[in-house]
């Protein structure tokens, strides 16, 4: 059963936020509030920093196993403050060692918001270029430093989101910051079960959690059988 | 003959330089010195600016017919100062009007320097990504604002360049800033002829210029004949 498996070390996540007008950004305020209770996630707003102390910055980076660049898309990349931090802090001393990278083994996430519909970012769309194309410099940075890159979490037109869509975003965002593989169904299902168990004062929550756990276990067994069938080990 | 054709309006070029340590950059010092005598080219170093006055910046941009972003590649894009200028100055008021762009009809050039061999920037090369891929955000910016994008002028490993290679770079750079189509052979040939005519105190220069001009005229006629042949208008 999933909840009996050996606990992996807790994910420590550094959210590096680049936004010059953060106090007027509903998206960023919403994301910040979504972090309440996530003790292992730290929020770091670059535009509020005047200068960077390289020792402090190095420790900040090294203490996380996941680094997330979070920003609105300005002229098809992050605002200047993220670039300034990268230019000044991500020096050879920080990102390389003799074995080719102090960051190797960590993951890099991108949380990117924009005011257009997501379909605008494609061949023939209004913006003509896909986000994957536009974000190539981050892909190259991850490849160079040995960071393993997560698929971006994109937030399109937050201003027009229904409350339900905002709730879904909150869940996706928390999962993105804390799960080993935020796009894997199993991990996301287990996350829901854990969430429900956390709110024990609500008995319904517990019942729903049990039911979800059963379903998840069944699903696991079903997947195992399928895998065995494929290997020809069962009939 | 080429030198009898109607003179087009002189190219006015704004070189926008982004480099946080320009005084220690031999590349940038060399490029700056290459501009001596080019009255219609202005050099604008962003990192020296504290704040931007949007009216002044707007006039600066609008008075040029060519804008050139000149920078070393830091983490696969321009240093932070270019991004800051774009974020703060290239607002809707500057880059759009009712007809979709005050910049329409102007050209955008990119002068990009880096310390690796150019072959590193390709599939399977040490950097894995081509410069065309990495520079996609500028392509998207040009498309959005109606700027017509020139192929980048790349400067690879300036520190190791021979004097002859530096001379060739100077010529390429001056052509890049001043010619309508810096990659067209005809325009580049005419540029050489004009250069030689400028140094009239040297009689040899004049003779060489005459000879080059004759060759260029012959070439033009030959090309015309070819074109007519293709159209089936001559036999």
TrEMBL record, chains A, B:
Pfam families: Flavodoxin_2. GO terms for molecular function: electron transfer activity; FMN binding; NAD(P)H dehydrogenase (quinone) activity. This is Putative NADPH-quinone reductase (Modulator of drug activity B). Keywords: Oxidoreductase. The keyword Oxidoreductase applies. Gene3D superfamilies: 3.40.50.360. Residues 11-176 form the Flavodoxin-like fold domain. The keyword Oxidoreductase applies.
């Amino acid at each position: 059963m999933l909840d009996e498996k050996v606990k992996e070390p807790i994910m420590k996540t550094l959210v590096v936020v680049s936004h010059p007008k953060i106090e007027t950004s509903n998206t960023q305020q919403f994301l910040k509030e979504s972090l309440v209770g996530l003790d292992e996630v730290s929020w770091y707003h670059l535009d509020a920093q005047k200068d960077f102390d390289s020792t402090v910055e190095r420790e900040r980076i090294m203490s996380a196993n996941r680094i997330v660049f979070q920003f609105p898309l300005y002229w098809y990349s992050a605002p200047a403050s993220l670039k300034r931090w990268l230019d000044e802090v991500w020096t050879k001393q920080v990102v390389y060692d003799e074995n080719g990278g102090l960051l190797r083994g960590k993951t890099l996430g991108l949380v990117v918001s924009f005011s257009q519909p997501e379909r605008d970012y494609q061949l023939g769309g209004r913006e003509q270029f896909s986000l994957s194309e536009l974000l190539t410099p981050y892909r190259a940075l991850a490849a160079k430093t040995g960071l393993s890159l997560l698929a971006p979490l994109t937030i399109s037109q937050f201003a027009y989101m229904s409350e339900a869509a905002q709730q879904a975003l909150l869940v996706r965002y928390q999962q993105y910051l804390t799960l080993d593989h935020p796009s894997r169904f199993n991990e996301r299902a287990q996350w829901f079960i854990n969430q429900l168990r956390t709110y024990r004062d609500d008995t319904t929550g517990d019942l729903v959690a049990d039911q979800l756990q059963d379903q998840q276990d069944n699903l696991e067994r079903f997947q195992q059988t399928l895998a065995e069938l494929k290997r020809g080990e069962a009939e």
